TrEMBL record:
Range of the intact protein held here: 279 to 565 of 576
Name of the protein this chain belongs to: Kinase
Ranges for domain EAL: 24-273
Recorded coiled-coil stretches: none
Source taxon at top rank: Bacteria
């Protein structure tokens, strides 16, 4: 009963709420200086092709907060966007990821996620090509991932931006396909090289016929439009086999590897991939 009463009171005045707001404000302030303090770092998650060969890595941003520990992107990117910090952070991500990729086998690609704020920044494409020049990284090995929310605003400029990136030789991926607006007109009007099927459809793939039908349709739609398809969030060997049998071009997910700290990439690359896929299928990992 005391608990119930506490909850009822909480609705009118709750000191804990103030605390939450204060903490948010603190977080926001520490986000402002996180770049200077070098608190951001990237993890890299591998992708494999139809032959189960590693083709490259996706860079995923993390924030090592001095007191709170490692904070995942979903917990701070919206705040960074709202505060106008995401363009600068994104620039750091791009440069850092390209530099890291210089150490990989020279056919590996690196995928970098873009937030709408970055993509819509004036001069964004110039900055991308300047960064490639600065780092000495070939445009053909860079993949930029955007979500459909990016395309909702300022359509003609969006198209210009995507076309410019395309002319530079950069690969463009449509991330999280199927979860947001998924307007088919995007597929008709924008020059994507690759569609990433959201993990929402991969999760229950083997138990849900609707997910299977949707995934099959996305694969055939993409191929019909000359785009490759990547499935993200593949967690089991069974899902991987199903997806490859249906013609999916690339796979990414815990079945292969979680995102890795940069220090672990060297040994991951050397180890060879097929053994690892076997390990995910249920044999014991030799290590
Ligand atoms: P995303 O680009 O769709 O990345 C995939 C997310 O799924 C990553 O979460 C990854 O760790 C997670 N994941 C990978 N494999 C599996 C799996 O098998 N199962 C499950 N359940 N999850 C898996 P993460 O790293 O927390 O990133 C979340 C989102 O944050 C990303 O989604 C992306 O939209 C955004 N993000 C990450 N890094 C950046 C960045 O540098 N810039 C921008 N603008 N956004 C970023
Ligand atoms: Mg992504
Ligand atoms: Mg995604
Ligand atoms: Mg996502």
């Amino acid at each position: 009963a005391a608990k119930k009463e506490g909850r009822r009171r909480a609705r009118t005045f709750d000191p804990a709420m103030l605390l939450v707001l204060e903490q948010r404000e603190l977080l926001r302030r520490s986000l402002r200086v996180a770049l200077q303090h070098k608190e951001f770092f990237l993890e890299y998650q591998p992708l494999v092709d139809r032959c189960r060969t590693v083709t490259g890595f996706e860079a995923l941003l993390r924030w090592r907060h001095p007191r709170l520990g490692v904070i995942p992107p979903i917990a701070f990117i919206p705040m960074a966007e709202a505060d106008g910090l995401m363009s600068e952070i994104g620039q750091w991500v791009l440069e850092e990821a390209c530099r890291a990729a210089l150490n990989w086998p020279d056919h590996y690609t690196v995928a970098v996620n873009l937030s709408p704020a970055e993509f819509l920044t004036v001069g964004f494409t110039d900055r991308v090509s300047q960064t490639l020049d600065l780092v000495g990284f070939p445009a053909e090995r860079l993949e930029l991932e955007i979500t459909e929310t990016v395309l909702l605003e300022r359509t003609t400029n969006n198209l210009d931006t995507l076309n410019t990136l395309n002319v530079l030789g950069i690969q463009i991926s449509l991330d999280d396909f199927g979860t947001e607006y998924s307007s088919l007109s995007y597929l008709k009007n924008f020059p994507f090289d690759n569609i990433k099927i959201d993990k929402y459809f991969i999760n229950d793939l083997l138990d849900d016929e609707k997910s299977q039908t949707i995934v099959r349709s996305i694969i055939s739609l993409s191929h019909g439009l000359d785009m490759r398809v990547t499935a993200e969030g593949v967690e089991t060997a069974e899902q991987a086999s199903w997806l490859l049998a249906e013609g999916c071009d690339r796979l990414q997910g815990y079945f292969l590897s979680p995102p890795l700290h940069v220090d672990r990439l060297g040994s991951f690359i050397r180890h060879g991939k097929k053994a690892r896929m076997g390990a995910a299928a249920g044999t014991t990992r030799a290590q």
